[in-house]
Amino acid sequence: MSGRNNKSKSGVDTSRRGFLTAGLAGGAALAATGMARANGDPLITEIQDWNRYLGDGVDAAPYGMPSEFEAHVVRRDVPWLTADPVSSVNFTPLHELDGIITPNGLCFERHHGGVAEIDPADHRLMIHGLVERPLVFTMQDLMRFPRENRIYFLECAANSGMEWRGSQLNGCQFTHGMVHCVVYTGVPLKYLLDEAGVKTSGKWLLAEGADAAAMTRSIPIEKALEDCLVAFKMNGEALRPEQGYPVRLVVPGWEGNMWIKWLRRLEVGDEPWGQREETSKYTDLLANGQARRHTWAMEVKSVITSPSPQAPIAHGPGRTVITGLAWSGNGRIDRVDVSLDGGRNWRPARIDGPSISKALHRFYLDIDWDGSEMLLQSRAMDETGMIQPMKDELRAARGENSIYHNNGIQTWHVNGDGVAENVEVS
Amino acid sequence: MSGRNNKSKSGVDTSRRGFLTAGLAGGAALAATGMARANGDPLITEIQDWNRYLGDGVDAAPYGMPSEFEAHVVRRDVPWLTADPVSSVNFTPLHELDGIITPNGLCFERHHGGVAEIDPADHRLMIHGLVERPLVFTMQDLMRFPRENRIYFLECAANSGMEWRGSQLNGCQFTHGMVHCVVYTGVPLKYLLDEAGVKTSGKWLLAEGADAAAMTRSIPIEKALEDCLVAFKMNGEALRPEQGYPVRLVVPGWEGNMWIKWLRRLEVGDEPWGQREETSKYTDLLANGQARRHTWAMEVKSVITSPSPQAPIAHGPGRTVITGLAWSGNGRIDRVDVSLDGGRNWRPARIDGPSISKALHRFYLDIDWDGSEMLLQSRAMDETGMIQPMKDELRAARGENSIYHNNGIQTWHVNGDGVAENVEVS
């Protein structure tokens, strides 16, 4: 564990109003941000190729792709994390993104038997067990039920799991990149269960995927009826194959492995099944040898995405945007505080964009950085009053056997050159 | 003009509550939706390949793409519409999408000199003219100002332009597909103008693109200071090249050609410039030979996206989801009504998902279709009380020389087989 106790002097505090006022003051602020007077830059008087020659026409790209200059903005896996890439994970490049929506092509992947490539015409969803009418739905059948659109984050239970043992991976893509947030379109699961008629003895639901791992989880019927969706679209278009095309379960606020992808079967029963993925995995071994189970909700969490180890401050002292993400499986985020000095002093960040229950929230702190080293931290509070803990508080409560549900405060050390590093303060 | 006056009997009215109750009634409803009892479908007992063999691992697709079974969901151009694809348009496949967010790869394109492929390191934005301090910004400079995230629709002024002459193109992708809606991240333009210091004589802004067409428009300074953004991200990632990478202007609610892409220059002046694209184009020639100009706002509008000519009802009578989009450059949508009988009777649609000013709104009407022919229409009302007009009302007011700003009510005729066609009722 690379402990670090020295506190930085940190950048001078500037409220948003103060920052903007300072920005208008003239010469000093201009010099600080590096902006040039209009007559000082040859790129203004030169005519570039893109101004001189016609570009591609509207028939060039039926499905558009990012600029070649964004080729570094990709999901990345860490080969040594797992034995084989078919039962593994890659990570959302959080440090390159902004706002609260994750583009479909950059949503992290986690699968247990590779990506099932399903022909929707041959896909069926069966509902059976303790129901009045066992049913089989084609995709077309599902499209005939009333639909809803909802924005939710999805976080893998193992997100930040390596951090239980201290700072390990150098970049928020790797420490926190098993989270994404999209708009889902789907049918409330309640409508399908009502169609089948759940018997009064039906208290649990088993959801099973059609992939080679037949990923399977037990879900209490109350949650299934409350807010789960059977979703077929994300961000407006069909689900991506790695996200469960043609249909997945959406289990708002709860750990990602319960959001069964390639959903083929829903069985109603009277007790939880105790399948492999809810016994040997996705339980939390405590110090006393007992395991916590049914730890479904993803608790309040946040991370600064820039500056961060993959996104250093490249422009030197002066105006600097600190930004990050916060989320909670229990509802909305009420507040995010940011510290520049490893938790000694905190100031409220600005949450910008829609604040939606169980969705990512984007926060900013605009500072005038004086070039001194910083120990950056963010700390989120949700609408239930839950506050993100220190990692050491988690370890004291749960021991050090855990992999899942690490929502501890993350620290980046930023040196005088703007280079950031994953560290831990105690 | 393919006029059509015969009114269908239309499907039996079912309120949402009534519809769901009916769905629970059992045998009749099940037969109507085509859902099979669980033991009747061989695809449930067979083991498909995707359940038998491992799929691709997490290292297969650093930037993900849609399923091969979605290859038909693409932007499409209409070659005969324009002389050359470098000054042309392609269309968003609205009939295949749901919710209010358009995926970046499917946002329609309109450019006047092809797509500029810009290296952001060599791009500059200059602010000059009637300002205290002419300035040049690098992309890094822009990233140092406070950012905001906002969801807006963007509609081309020429969207539905062919419909002035009666129903022409068979599909909402072509009649209404010059609209998209994404989350923008950017800097309020006001902050940049304040940095430069607009002189009291400065009343207009000229925005110019760095593409081969040097697309240029005049914008009143009040609008520039009110809610325009200098945006560098869409749906969380960098702008796509065809949408102005690395930086574009966002002019909420106003016609798309003013949202200058590849933004390289902002000049402050004391009157509008009268450039080519605001004289010979993007003005509205009236019957008396005079032209309307400065017709900036996109008025209240809606369209049913499914069923529609490219998205017929494929499942026969019974439960049917009617869905569409509504939007207004003046604010939120307050109400959408749907008619099944060419405007004789109207019923309120359900608006689902966030209702955001100057963003797309998604609406649904869930019906139990009896298989009789329908004349489907939608009619939106915005928060200012503006109601979408009939196309003939527009023609009566503006004559038939117009191309732009057709926000008339669209009609789809649906026959007993569920096949839809673009028609006009009068």
Do you know the CATH architecture of the largest domain in chain A? Answer: Alpha-Beta Complex
Question: What gross morphology of chain A would you assign?
Answer: globular
- Let me know the CATH homologous superfamily of the largest domain in chain A: Oxidoreductase, molybdopterin-binding domain
**DSSP E strands of chain A, number:** 25
Q: What is the CATH C-level name of the largest domain in chain A?
A: Alpha Beta
Description of the molecule:
Chains A, B: This is Sulfite dehydrogenase. Chains A, B: Residues 293-410 form the Moybdenum cofactor oxidoreductase dimerisation domain. 2 copies of one chain form a homodimer. The longest helix of chain A is centred in the N-terminal third of the chain and has 8 residues, at 16-23. With 426 residues, chain A is of the alpha+beta class. The first copy, chain A, has a 5-stranded mixed sheet with strand order 6-5-14-9-10. In chain A, strands 7, 8, 11, 12 and 13 form a 5-stranded antiparallel sheet that branches. Residues 1-32 of chain A have low confidence and may be disordered. In chain A, a hairpin with an 8-residue loop joins β21 and β22 (361-369). Chain A is globular and about 75 Å long. The first copy, chain A, folds into 2 domains: 91-292, Sulfite Oxidase, Chain A, domain 2; 301-423, Immunoglobulin-like (Sandwich). Chain A contains 9 helices and 25 strands. In chain A, 13% of the residues lie in helices and 29% in strands. At the A-B interface, α1, α2, β1, α4 and β2 of A face α1, β1, α4, β2 and β3 of B.
